[in-house]
Fold this protein.
Amino acid sequence: MNARLLVVDDEQSIREFLRLLFEEEGYRVTAAGSVTEARERIGRQDFDLILSDILMPDGNGLDLLREIRKAQPNTAVIMMTAYTSNKSAIEAMKLGAFSYLSKPFEVEELKVVVTKALESTGLASENQYLRRELEQKYEFSNIIGKSTEMQEIFSLIKRVARTNSTVLIRGESGTGKELIARAIHFASRRSVKRILSINCGALPENLLESELFGHEKGAFTGAIGAKKGLFQEANGGTLFLDEVGEMTPSMQVKLLRALQERKIRKVGGATEEPVDVRIIAATNRDLAESIKIGDFREDLYYRINVIPIHLPPLRRRREDIPLLAEHFLEKYTASLEIDSKPISSEAMRVLEGHRWPGNVRELENVIERALALSTKENLTTADLPLAMVQGEERLPGSDARLPDEGLDLEAYLDGVRGRLMQQALERASGVQTRAADLLGMTFRSFRYYAKKLGLTGSTDEDEG
């Protein structure tokens, strides 16, 4: 995003000159002709940098500087005056001005000072950003899960975080792919820099290219100034590419080149710039299938799939549902400023039996809605969506009941397991790895039970 500047000067010619000068540089410029007008502007909007005259008819720029330091402490301020005074210069610097310039000033000198001032505010903003992020949810302790699969993922994340390797996170929508990406970043040495993210499927190709690589002034209609891309903004840090499987073929080529060369070229640019960015990509698509039908480049797939992480859907980690529900209860009772409300055992059974096509995100929304609308001391089935209570999207087996005469559980489970595994093999054309994926099983586990249950017609993946 281009920097926002405020020019404060009672001389219209200077205001207009500075406005045109810095708009040509690509900044967004607002002008004020008095201290009073400047106060109004500052009260309505945050600025990255303020250029202010000292002597004005309705007040003193040094007084305005004091107010800016209180109202917008991270904003850089450059003081300007036609009446050079060592005393006022010293006072301005003591009050926190970035620089003090005498009129008339050299245009190139002014540009350099403004650039340096904005770089200083960028560092301050980045430090504040990091503190906010680290204090929030992007720590391992805030990723909920006691299931075996999630524990294995936590262990993998800790190992991955120590490296600079590219990571590909697979999983259905709502499984928490970005949460995992941020956990990796904040546990890594790159945590002192930013993690930036973009949804590759949400933007048209030309806009996505500009967002990733930046553009030069005049590169296309509306490019009134040069703009940094996310690769530059995240330099030294991490770039999270969500829904990377939605990229067009030509964008895949450009991304592949950037990853291979570790250099980027702005749209409309003639030179390449080196970048140091860790890529974490995510997708809810089966990229191997996309490669087969020609929608995704195989060389790009191998470039981003250095360390794969597969997030299981919530229906495959049912033991985590009570933990997640309690987590969201605590979160939203605090944000809604209401008393804690326990979930009734009947309501919890409904939650555990639901199929959760929207995964963790859907569960969070259900809990938030239930708390917001509930009028009782605890959450019951009456507070849950009717379709959920009536059993739509319910998991197979969630309504199972024990016969009066009892049953041989192991034999019963083996029977169900065998039928489902055979169906999965048929659907996967005999390829065990694909059949295992359909059932949410590891290949090793699938192979073990296939042998134990005497399933026929199965083959290894290289035979499929």
Summary: The chain is about 45% helix and 10% strand. The domain at 315-389 is CATH 1.10.8.60 (Helicase, Ruva Protein; domain 3). Residues 458-464 have pLDDT under 50 and may be disordered. Residues 107-135 form the longest helix (29 residues).
